[in-house]
């Protein structure tokens, strides 16, 4: 099951966008995908996002039985 994505507008300085666009291209990602990657890595390093092993699939959330 794919995770739900939240869409929202993001305004960036043109120079910042160009730099991210080039970096994303170098990493074979879309700009949106690279921004998401960078945010996820920053959150993980700050201890604000649990680290998930890529070799182990995520466990589905238990369903509410009420």
From TrEMBL:
GO biological-process terms attached to the record: regulation of DNA-templated transcription
Domain of life: Bacteria
InterPro entries in alphabetical order: Arc_rbn_hlx_hlx, Ribbon_hlx_hlx
Protein name in UniProt: Toxin-antitoxin system HicB family antitoxin
Gene source species: Cohnella terricola
């Amino acid at each position: 099951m794919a995770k739900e994505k939240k869409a929202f507008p993001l305004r960036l300085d043109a120079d910042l966008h160009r730099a991210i666009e080039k970096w994303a291209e170098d990493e074979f990602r879309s700009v949106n995908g690279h921004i998401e990657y960078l945010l996820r890595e920053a959150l993980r390093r700050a201890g604000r996002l649990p680290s998930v092993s890529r070799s182990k699939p995520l466990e589905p959330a238990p369903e509410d039985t009420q």
